[in-house]
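Interim report, section 4.2 (structural modelling).
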Amino acid sequence: MLKDFVRTERMTEKERRAKIREERDHLFSSQMKIKDAKLPVMVIFEGWNTAGKGEIIGKVIRNIDPRFFKVATMDRQPSEEEKRYPFLYRFIKEIPETGKFRFFDTCWMEEVVDGVIEGTLSEEDYKKRVHSVNILERQLCDNGYLVIKFFFHISKKEQKKRLEKLSGSKDTKWRVDKEDLFQNKNYDRFLDLYERYLDDTNASRTPWYIIDAEDKKTAELQVLSFLNQGIDIALTNQKMNVPILQNTFPMQKLPKLSEIPLDDKVLTEEEYDAKLDSLQKELKDLGNKIYRKKIPVIIAYEGWDAAGKGGNIKRITEALDPRDYVVEPIASPEPHEKARHYLWRFWTRLPKTGHITIFDRTWYGRVMVERLEGFCSENDWQRAYNEINEFEKELSDWGAVIIKFWVQIDKDTQLERFNDRQNTPEKQWKITDEDWRNREKWDLYETAIDEMIEKTSTAFAPWHVLESVDKKYARIKALKIVIEEIKKRL
Amino acid sequence: MLKDFVRTERMTEKERRAKIREERDHLFSSQMKIKDAKLPVMVIFEGWNTAGKGEIIGKVIRNIDPRFFKVATMDRQPSEEEKRYPFLYRFIKEIPETGKFRFFDTCWMEEVVDGVIEGTLSEEDYKKRVHSVNILERQLCDNGYLVIKFFFHISKKEQKKRLEKLSGSKDTKWRVDKEDLFQNKNYDRFLDLYERYLDDTNASRTPWYIIDAEDKKTAELQVLSFLNQGIDIALTNQKMNVPILQNTFPMQKLPKLSEIPLDDKVLTEEEYDAKLDSLQKELKDLGNKIYRKKIPVIIAYEGWDAAGKGGNIKRITEALDPRDYVVEPIASPEPHEKARHYLWRFWTRLPKTGHITIFDRTWYGRVMVERLEGFCSENDWQRAYNEINEFEKELSDWGAVIIKFWVQIDKDTQLERFNDRQNTPEKQWKITDEDWRNREKWDLYETAIDEMIEKTSTAFAPWHVLESVDKKYARIKALKIVIEEIKKRL
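Predicted structure of the assembly:
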């Protein structure tokens, strides 16, 4: 699309000025509508070096109240720290919240294209990255984001002229770096790659808009009018439902909760003590190994209230070096978390390589409590199975070990433990009215959990059920699984 | 996606039967909703030979009143006649109208995959076809269609078993043909190609659903539930606005109508007679050549009322063999045309190779009268420039010569001609109240036409303005352009 691109501009200077004024006013009046509609607007500026992205961003934001936007200036390459997270992590951290603009001064495109140019990304890596980008852009759209992508286009000649002009003055000389000169020298190679990348990521709901950046006034007008057009359309499409994609990940079959025997899953105190000790020792060693080998580990706990998640987690962490792991207790989302894609608060809590994050409750809230309490729409939670599998596949491809536990007890055992908590003063803080209310919905939850386990037990991130009527049994089983899964990856 | 596909089916037979009953009732009750919402539903069945597509279609339609659906059974390869039209022509002819279902028993996928297998489609051809398919599927969605795509999947072993069973009985032996055996023998090659095709055409709004067709009851349930789910979502998304894609075709710059001088474009009677005669002779020869060389030619006329389109067209057709051309006068769409994608009535009027179709008014009605009279939404006509360019690009890539004329006069000339028509009894049929009403909107039309010419004058299908204050001049110019454009292609 870049190579054929020819601007047809028939405006007079006067017409253009009038049009720019009109578009600026339009954008100004859109900001309150965006706020009211809770629309998050992500505007991505990509393109040639010296094409004037920063300058146009500067002009565009002059029409928006500073409370309603932020500019994310992304480095072309991740820092050493950021390299220890998945490719998309540093960008996802910056996505806007509902009702606000976020302007990206370059985004994920640069890292991919530079990687190919420098030879650090193979053909296969390139395809994987493009795949990840397409999934993320689709997920953002599906979850109500407006994503607008601009490519600032200038010719080789124009770029050269600009670089020479910048180099020619001692006040601007510093703005020209080796990368700029390299890009101009290798303009045609970059052009091929940009063209390919644009083609590969040009989806119907997140299309590319090519900005003719040779003339800055035209560039500003084009950006403003595509932006306004996109906002107007997005504002009419709130509450839209989205096709539910089929879950085509390789799946593992697990039994329904009601089919899982619990009573025979018991350990004596002696068996427990002996096994706990030796397993914790083994896990300690493995913890050191994954630290040295820089393998990230994600352990996700879900289970019935009072099933024994806390004590189970404790037996894992006891074996680990406190510098290497973190436990993330997940409660209802904070306002700033609720205002973003529902996976955002988990993306931002990922371990870096060599570290372990244990989630005490997880992203599966989407298809359990959020589903049952109506905190999201039916379309939202139905879509979530596939979105979650995509999320976990991304982490698995990054190299993470993903271990998902469902801590299982029966309804009677829960009642016993609830009563015990209620009647034991030092345990009373552990039981709330909400626990009792949730208990009333046991059957609805069970249906939801069965569906969740069926639809998200993938080959790369299967569920493991921990039978926890005897908590000792569950703890030993959890340790064994963690050890086994880590060993597979070493 | 095919290669990883693993079914996770945990239902008992009883549960499945209950679920099928539920989905059948759901579909039954959807048919009236679809009618009321004027939703056109296109359901595409693709997949392995003997996978049972036809049988499942038979089961699905039992839940729908015969007035609300048709089944389009497509041959895997086009007939000799159909080969003389663009690749997508035979499929587009069959798209459903609003409020109705159309089930496709195989669709464009087969022709593409078979072409690659047989070596008649090169890698480049394959990519072009996939590109065409993606554009069409997107255009259908953007214009309010629900498009659901099923791939019926069975293993090599299962296919072999079925073929052997069919061959084994003399009642069913005829159902097994050479192609079936060939496919089973070359299962892995087909699998690679299907996998690639599915990946290449798996868009977020027209995703693929893989049907596990080893077990027919499961297949029926899956089809019904994906179909119902898709319908429910589509019904909530009526009146949706669609992102306006950027027009990135190579464009040609033309002046605005008001900048085109008209008065000096005059011919004397003698000049006209001499030129007309020689040009018509030349065109006659070219007409024969394009017939023999099987080149399709599309001539599109637009222009002001009373600009002289009719007489202009006559001077072209006089030179042609009546067996080789057809003039299509385009009035407001008939109900059955209005009920389909707005380009459908033009797709179905295309010339076959070696023939000429002259459109007296065209698909550009979308961005002129439909825009100005509010016959379509703003989102519809804004999207149409790019959709029309895509349509013409498809025709141009097919090999068609596309010639677009704007017949231009000034407002005073129109008034003169209107008065002449009004005051001359034998011309009175040519003038209606509508003509006078349109004339009142001259300025609005001029703005729309300028925008149309700017946005649809592509390198492969540019506009030609015929200055027609002197009709003789316009006729000679039209003949010259038709000759020139045909010559370029010979």
